[in-house]
Write a structure and sequence with these properties.
Structural class of chain B: alpha/beta
Shape of chain B: globular
Helix content of chain A: 25-40%
Distance between the termini of chain A: 48 Å
Number of domains of chain A: 2
Strand order of the largest sheet of chain B: 6-7-8-3-9-10
Number of helices of chain B: 11
Structural class of chain A: alpha/beta
Strand content of chain A: 15-25%
Largest interface: A-B, 59 and 58 residues
Number of helices of chain A: 12
Bound molecules: adenosine-5'-triphosphate, magnesium ion
Oligomer: heterodimer
Largest sheet of chain A: 6 strands, mixed
CATH class of the largest domain in chain A: Alpha Beta
Distance between the termini of chain B: 56 Å
Helix content of chain B: 25-40%
């Protein structure tokens, strides 16, 4: 069984006419790195909310089917209990920060886990440093720039060291260098500690090199699911308005002119190596 | 007449110095993109343009009017600002009211309001949400309501803080179309981290880079966004197309690297392959 099992889940928010999730099935294995993408409004955030129990405990509505996270049925366990296994970085960082200082927000989770003081201190320091927030730790969150708030929200979740990390567009407010750093950090946690990652993203250029799978949703359903090289070269992905990374578009433009590369590149570095091999042995 | 930012300094009440002597001119039909690290002062700068923030030192002139001597409401008729975080902008009980709000304030007649609101709902793909509370929308949908609520009054200076936030590729292209339709008629000023969105504009914008409260460079996109030293000072990552070419150059292959365009890059690589063959 996967660490995340979404079984035939449908959800309609109270007062809404259309289901936000419509018979969703998704299974994610421990230590997988999965990207979730799809048009704005297709249900990505709602699916994330199902994984830590916000749906159906906090957001009311009509919930059908079953979600198991680390073996726990989300209907039968409280948000707090689930959050010890699943950390969710919210799409809007402001909604995640409620303490008087950044440091207090980052310490909040570990303190509630009842960890020893020294361990809390270590984790908070680590999380603040890797997100570039150490210098700003005494600042009130509402007096930060958008990107600084997002870094603080990420730090608050990382400090929990959850076994499943769900990140809802975690780089949308970050400068590109910061986004690259955070993504490589997440990839490292995934590789080194086996943390399972579900990353919601529209910008697949930076993220797809790290992914084992890309899942595309459309209108509350899972439309595509496969390795990035397959999904991102498919006609369906284009039709659904998925942003195809420039390296893949360049790969296709070159193929049209008869320059075929042996693999689908996911990063500029990989693409340059492939081109260099091909042109040198022509 | 232009917007003139003259040697502007700004210190937040808590003591943080966010702007340190910014000077910048936005001409009538300018197309300007501002990029730079988190905390550089971009949002603060944009808020000085419609008077939400008044400079601690220096001044901002909008068509000759000093922003210290005008209200935000007066300035907003000309300077339409879309906030970075849409939650700071949305307060009406339905999407339709939200989009009509400024038009009512500016005294547009009901017929014109109706026409413009319909246009905005349709253009930003929000028709099915017209009676829904903006609070009940997805992140990307909220941002589109915020965009619609400003685009709808067609300000002379359109100022967009992270307009692509939460948008999928198709929505970004839609937004690009709207912006391109305004170029040459209105001034458009965009703050964004989305470098691939910027490089796909034709014509390409002028780019200003900010870091630590200052403007550190200003010039053509082709020059600024391919310069390794500037990119690193502004916490930017080279766009994918020139990054491929740089990597090829590093492997000793003779290609140009100041290329942002996909088709140009394809041609450069094809001719490289022919040259070596
Ligand atoms: N709190 C809510 N109450 C009612 N409807 C909601 C609520 N939040 C989202 N919705 C609706 O549910 C659908 C799915 O929204 P969701 O936020 O899951 O989309 P998303 O894929 O995350 O979109 P985006 O990329 O724009 O963030 C949308 O139609 C949205 O309008
Ligand atoms: N309300 C506030 N009170 C005090 N300081 C603030 C406030 N808002 C922002 N700051 C600080 O002012 C500086 C500039 O912030 P600003 O929001 O202008 O940055 P930005 O360039 O827009 O960053 P981002 O890319 O993260 O949105 C930062 O150091 C930030 O912490
Ligand atoms: Mg979302
Ligand atoms: Mg900002």
């Amino acid at each position: 069984m996967g660490i995340i099992e979404v079984e035939d889940v449908s959800f309609t928010y109270s007062g809404s006419k259309r289901p936000a999730l419509d018979h969703v099935d998704l299974s994610i294995k421990k230590s997988e790195f999965v990207i979730l993408t799809g048009p704005s409004g297709c249900g990505k955030t709602t699916l994330c909310r199902c994984l830590n129990g916000l749906v159906p405990h906090f957001y009311s509505g009509d919930f059908r089917g079953r979600v198991l996270v680390a073996g726990l049925d989300t209907r039968e366990h409280e948000i707090w209990e689930l959050s010890q296994h699943v950390g969710l970085v919210f799409q809007n960082p402001e909604n995640q920060l409620f303490c008087l200082t950044v440091e207090a927000d980052v310490a909040f989770g570990p303190e509630n886990l009842g960890l020893p003081r020294e361990e809390i201190r270590r984790r908070v320091e680590w999380a603040l440093k890797v997100t570039g927030m150490w210098e700003l730790r005494h600042r009130p969150p509402h007096e930060l720039s958008g990107g600084q708030q997002q870094r603080a929200a990420i730090a608050a979740v990382l400090a929990m060291k959850p076994e499943v990390l769900v990140l809802d567009e975690p780089t949308s407010f970050l400068d590109p260098a910061g986004a690259a750093e955070i993504l490589s950090l997440v990839a490292e946690l995934n590789k080194r500690l086996g943390i399972t990652v579900l990353l919601v993203e529209h910008r697949l250029d930076m993220t797809s090199p790290y992914a084992d799978r890309v899942v595309v949703m459309a209108k509350g359903r899972i439309a595509l699911d496969g390795p990035p090289e397959e999904v991102l070269t498919s006609r369906e992905a284009r039709e659904l308005g998925v942003g195809i990374p420039k390296v893949i578009r360049l790969y296709e433009l070159l193929a049209e002119r008869g320059l075929r590369l042996p693999e689908v590149p996911l990063s500029p570095g990989q693409m340059a190596s492939l081109i260099s091999e091909v042109v040198r042995c022509r | 007449m232009p917007i003139e930012v003259q040697y502007v300094w700004y210190t937040y009440p808590s003591g943080i110095e966010a702007l340190k002597g910014i000077s910048l001119t936005v001409e009538d039909r300018d197309f300007l993109v501002i990029m730079g690290p988190n905390g550089a002062g971009k949002t603060t700068l944009l808020k000085t343009l419609n008077g939400l923030i008044k400079p601690t030192k220096g001044r901002v002139l909008v068509d000759g009017v000093d922003t210290r001597h005008a209200t935000v409401a007066e300035l907003s008729r000309k300077v339409g600002l879309v906030f970075q975080n849409p939650d700071h902008q949305l307060f009406c009980s339905t999407v339709e009211e939200e989009i009509a709000f400024a038009l009512r304030n500016f005294g547009f007649n009901e017929e014109e309001i109706k026409e413009r609101v319909e246009w905005a709902l349709e253009t930003l793909g929000l028709e099915e949400y017209r009676d829904v509370s903006p609070l009940m929308l997805s992140g990307g949908e909220k941002k589109r309501v915020a965009l619609a609520s400003v685009l709808v009054w067609d300000p002379k200076y359109l100022v967009l803080d992270e307009p692509t936030l939460g948008q999928d590729y198709a929505q970004k292209e839609k937004l690009r179309e709207i912006i391109c339709g305004l170029l040459g008629q209105r001034a458009v000023i965009i703050v964004t981290h989305d470098i691939e969105f910027v490089v796909d504009f034709r014509p390409r914008p002028r780019v200003a880079l900010m870091a630590d409260g200052r403007i550190i460079a200003e010039g053509k996109a082709e020059e600024v966004l391919t310069d390794p030293e500037l990119l690193s000072r502004a916490s930017l990552v080279r766009p994918q197309v020139p990054e491929v070419l740089f990597n090829l150059r590093e492997k000793g292959l003779p290609v140009r690297t100041d290329v942002l365009d996909l088709v140009e890059a394809r041609d450069a690589i094809i001719s490289l392959a022919r040259g070596l063959a």
